[in-house]
Structure formats: structure tokens, C-alpha cells
# Entry
Amino acid sequence: MAVPPPRPPCPDASLTVTPTVTLTIDGEPAAGAGRTPVEDPASARIFAHAPACSHRQLDAAVGAAAVAGVAWAALPLARRREYLLRCGTALAARAEQVAEILTREQGKPLRAAAAETRSAADWFARTADLALAAEELADHGARVAVERVPYGVVAAIAPSNFPVLLAVCKVAPALLAGNTVVLTPSPVTPLATLRMGEILRDVLPPGVLNVISGDTAISRALTEHPAVRLISFTGSVETGRAIARQAAPRFVRTVLELGGNDPAIVLGDADLGRVAGELFDRAMRNSGQFCAAVKRVYVPERRRAELVDRLRERAGNTRVGDGMDPATDLGPLVSGRQLERVAALVADAVAAGARVVCGGAPLDLPGHFYPPTVVTDLPAGTALEEEEQFGPVIPVIGYTTVDEAVDRANATRFALGASVWGPPEKARGIAARLDCGTAWINTHGDLRHDVPFGGARDSGLGVEYGHWGLLEYTRIRVRHVAVPA
# Structure
């Protein structure tokens, strides 16, 4: 079967949009103390600059959030719901503009960027529907209520893979719970998030949501700021550990989503004609830059060759190119650093004896392009099996017994998601043995607004989404009223 050639960057892509964005501090625009270059990963060229927040501006943003928090927390919950609904409406009205900026700085296909922005707008509305009521305890000579109250100022740090959606997944529940927020995006993808801040500052009261950008020093200054009472971070394990150390001296609450190395176990009687396509799609979402993507596949040794062939066929029909091109299926990786990491992990596997079935090397294009890659014959202990590659690579590993597959699936330092593919009754028992936050059966990475999502060990602390994610942004306060005898 013919392999579609890679798509070069669109020749006029740099003319599509040149975004100019500002910080949002206390409801007002701020230019920043400097400028940070932002690269288009499809061309590896600078196409815009983001404002760089100064430490003085950071103090102003946190101070504004602290002052605004008094009135915001005092608002009736119904009023805060109304504000969230208005945020969703305002973001939806400008979804196309935000999506184009997002594609330019992150690389994903424009239709995927538009879907992310629409999902972010919808997330405001979905979050507004969540309940946050006091719990009345049984009468034991007193009237006792367990209330959920806000922490105060929340530092929200969003990642580069889904910058807009994952920012809203933090901002929306934090605001509904009565907190105020200082949001900072990844320095690799700051523009769409800053644009969202500009949109929402016309909706929210001043100081309720402040959006800043800068380098890692600014992010660290934010997490160490004495007025911050909760830190919500999505990103690397190393940065998550650093944040936990910074928060510990002041006992600041943290919610840390640190990624995963999700295994998928294919059972011997699974329908590979259906399963192969599902696995491919769930491994390649956002060019593999998705914490809950399939990162490694375990299949009975007798069926490994068949699965590998089917995955290779899907890879051969996938077009890699500039996200601004409607024909593109997979865009570039977000940065040169990420491209180097993926290439190094594949090269390390090959050096250890693994076999690359298709792909396996960066494409000869100006941007950060890596093709969909299938690797098999991995020796046990290979880094490509044990670490999160965060790229468009599928390691396919044969097993002899299901016990062996479960042991290898559980053997990494991550415990975010996992899946089992095959007859549901048989799959349920195997899924129960997987050490993870979410065990899917005959699907993978299906994240929903009303279902909690989180992991254990190096995958982080706490959960996001739904009622359970909302509770992470609250602390318990007991109201105890004595009843006279």
C-alpha cells in the first residue's frame, strides 16, 4: 500500500495570523516586562512573541486575586454559576480565533484545535452544573454541617499539549468553588491561553482570573508566593516533584497530574480487525502528546505479527504535516526538545535489539515532525517500554500468559490509565488487577467531564473532573451549633 508523503509546512502559514496578546492582571491588560519568542513547530521558526511577566507584575496578579477573593467567595453559588456560563459563551464566540493561534503555536491540526476550544467553552457550562452543598450530619444533640469552602488564591499551571482545555479544567472548578486564580501556561504555548484571558477579563470581575506568562523562574515564583494556597499543575514528573517540595514548607495543597505510561492488554480472542484501528487512534491522538494515550501494547505472541501488520497499515495511511493544512492527520511535535526525546527513546530501543516496523526517524522537514512509528521485539527493561515517550510511537510487546502481561503492565513507575481489549466478562477480571487510576475495557483515554481522572505514584496526586475534581478546590469547614437541652 502506498504511503502518503509527509506534508511540508504551508507556504503561506506565517501570514495566516500574527497574534499580539497581553497579560491579564486585575482585569486590565499588561504588556509585560519583556518578550518571549514563540515558535511554530511546523516550521521551527519564530512567528510571534509573548509578553514576559516581571516579578513585580506577578506580585500584582497574586495580590489582585487575594483582594478579589473576598467578594468572589461571598457571592452566592448561583451567581458564580452564571459567571461560568458567560465565560463559556464568550470563549465559544471566539473559538475560531483561539483555535488558529493554538494550531500555530502547538502544531495540532486546526480541526483538533477548534474541537479543543469548543470543549473548553463547554467545560465552563458543564462545571457550572456541579453541586457544592453542605452535608448535614445526624443529630447528636447538635446541628452539624460539613461545608466546602474555598482555599483562596489558586496557582494554575497548564501544559503544552492541550493548553486551552486543560487550563479551563483548572480554572472552572476553582472559580465555582469560590477561589480566585492566577493562571500561567507553558512557556512553549502561551498565546492561546493569554488570548483566552483577554476574552474572559471582559466577563469576570477584576482580579478573579489573572493570566500571566513567563519562564520557569516566574512559574516557580508563583508556586512559592506566600499568598497562594493551592497549586494545580499538569506536566512532567520532575516539575511536579519540584512543586511538591516548594509547597511542603507552607503546607500548600497541591493537585498534580504528572502523566502516564498507559498499557493496553489485548486478549487472545480479541477482534484485531477492530482493535488495531482503535489502538492506533488512541496512541496517536495529538501525535501521541496525551497523558492518557496508549503508550505500549501487550498482545499474545501468536497474534503479535498480525497486530503489527495492521498497525503498520494504519500508519501508512496517516498523513503527517502542518496543522494548518486540512489534509493533515498528525501535526508536528510541540518542540525540538520533544522531538529529540522521542527519537532518542526509539534509537535506544533499536540499540537494545528492538525492531522498527515503520517510521523510526524524524522526517526531513523544517519542523518537528516524527512519523507514526511501530516498534516490536523490545527486550524487557527497554526505556521505550518503561518511560512515557509522549510521541507517535507504539511499542508492541508479545506475551505468553496473561499473568506475564499484567506484571509487565504494572511494572513501571506510572499508574494513570490502562486498558484491556477482548470479551468484556474476561476483560473485567484482568482490568481489576491493573494498578492504575482508570481501567478501560475496549476503549482507552475516554475522559469525561463528569468522571474523576487521576493516578498514583509518579502519575500524581488528586483527581480532576466532575464532582470529585471540584472538591479538590475546597477544604472542609464544620459548622457545629449546640442544641439546648
